[in-house]
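Narrative of activities, Objective 1.

The group set out to show that a structural description can be obtained from nothing but a protein's sequence at a throughput compatible with the screening campaign. Below is one input-output pair from the validation batch, recorded exactly as produced.
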Amino acid sequence: MRMKPTLRGRWRAGARALALLAQLLLPPLVSAQVLVDRIVARIENDIITLSDLRETERVQMLLEGKPETQDQILQRVIEQWIIRTEMDTAGFPEPSEEAVARAITRVQSRFASKEAFDARLAELRLTRQDVVRVMTAQLRALRYVDYKLRGVSQPGPEQVREYFERELIPALQKKGETLPEFDDVEPQIRELLTQRELTARAERWLQETKARLRIETMGGVKSP
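Output recorded for this entry:
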């Protein structure tokens, strides 16, 4: 049975949350433009520069259409450092070239044509090599988060049933749609709830890790 529209929309919302989380891992890009750089933060024995923030901003504009605030971007770059450091320490593998190519195709499909996609890259001073690097990091991030947290993010049978009865059915009734049998949508509900919990746990993990690290932000960019 196909996923109900309401359930499909909520599943996509969960998937988008994970995708946004994965953007925390966007790697530093190499720009041809020479920038007057400055340090905006120190984390342990490393530094974060203004160009790191600008590069992350451009990637967000490509993938989401608009960037976050500078304060939020700084937090993303700090979180990028945390997760990349942990993945590298664990020796977590890179995704396959085929998986990266499929991800790039999905990004390009948001544009009217290949030419429109290339024009947007040029406008943002990004190259196709940058996009490959970004999508490689994003896929690696998604898979690492899944590997690290999926096992403890599984909902119990009572949680799945509660979502079905208290959220899905009322939403479908309000729209006047046909009500599904529980067994027909149970796998989709389980995955939706897993993604929801996985995202929440990942956010808590990052906040707790930041609290344990030595992080110093410089003037001009605030830290929460």
